[in-house]
User: Fold this.
Amino acid sequence: MNRQAKQSISDLAYFGGAPCFERLVHVVHASTLQKERFLSMLDGVFERGQFSNDGPLVREFERRIEERLKVKHCMAICNGTTALQIAARATGMRDEVIVPSFTFIATAHALQWQGIRPVFCDVDPETHTLDPASVERMLTPRTSGIVGVHLWGVPCDIEALSTLARGAQVPLIFDAAHAFGASHNGRMVGNFGSAEVFSFHATKLFHTFEGGAVVTSDSGLAAEIRLLRNFGFSDYDKVVSIGINGKMSEVSAAMGLAGLEILDRVIEANRARYGSYARHLADVRGIALKDCSADGDGNCQYIVIEVEPDSCLLTRDQLLALLHAENILARRYFYPGCHRMEPYLTLQPSAGRELRNTERLADRVIVLPTGERMDEIMIEQICDVIKFVVGNSALIRLRLK
Ligand code: T4K
Assistant:
């Protein structure tokens, strides 16, 4: 690490100076804290020789999640995308489903993959989650469901969306890929809508290498999801419906069980890192740190800033290029919005007309590094670079031209 503060803009790595970090600082680094605990569970897996197909660790993992979230049913799935596909199918979604465009592409693909047209809806500029007024405008007789996304781990406007879904008599599910461990009004995320879907991908604060889950308290829906995840088998040799292979492996479940033991500590550490960013970035002109917990119960796994180019005097992409040169691998999730990616750009070329907030955010958001490899000093160094860049943005802008 190079701790030397920048004195002039020529010290910026973009203009030939030494980078702030010698090695790449990733937006997140997959958690390895529970390596020993994970490895200790593998002997049993090898002794039993059962590696998949509803093994004992998967069952235990599901039971622990049910207990933690206070939901009746958890179905562990091989990844979050397949979990979304299964949840959409199990709840009877078809034709058209309302989704935000400002989300990871998997939210839209999970629908399109099974012939359901994602109808892209705008998000609230403050919360970055589905704007209920926009959802209301998008509802038509062809709407067969709504998928809200708890983006950045911050719950959607669950009450307003539930009211809309009830009124339209369509199922509401939540893509809670970012929201494991977060809560809303004292209830854990997982308890809302017809079902909620988690991703336990390696990049998440809680992970099973690859993995995901659908949770619901609707027993009929849970039974359908169990069938869908296992090719439609209801017994050893009886197939009662179409299904897919959505099963989680025992090795993934072992990682999940190990991770659950320290989840509270991990979330606390994330909140502390968020607090450090908040302190260091307070009052930086044109940089707004997004609140990571709308009602104080977020998991703070993403550190999201919005760049206001008029006051910052630099665009988001200029700032990002300067950070990358310093080996700070911040990311512009979820640029440019699903509607501007294929196949949606071709299938729905005018979708952007309804998506003003989405397009604005897609051009302004940067996600900064966090996770267990980030300490207070690194956070301070990253913030110092941002402060230096913003403080010298007029000069930098001239030089970039
Ligand atoms: N819905 C939403 C709203 C989602 O955000 C996602 C996934 C899904 C649904 C679908 O869930 P899954 O089917 O993925 O379970 C990542 C993840 O691949 C993806 O899971 C995630 N959202 C999305 C937001 O981000 P990238 O593009 O960030 O991956 P990558 O490879 O650039 O990794 C980022 C950093 O993480 C790297 O710089 C280093 C670190 N890393 C990554 C991997 C894969 C590790 O330290 N270890 C690793 O094994 O996509």
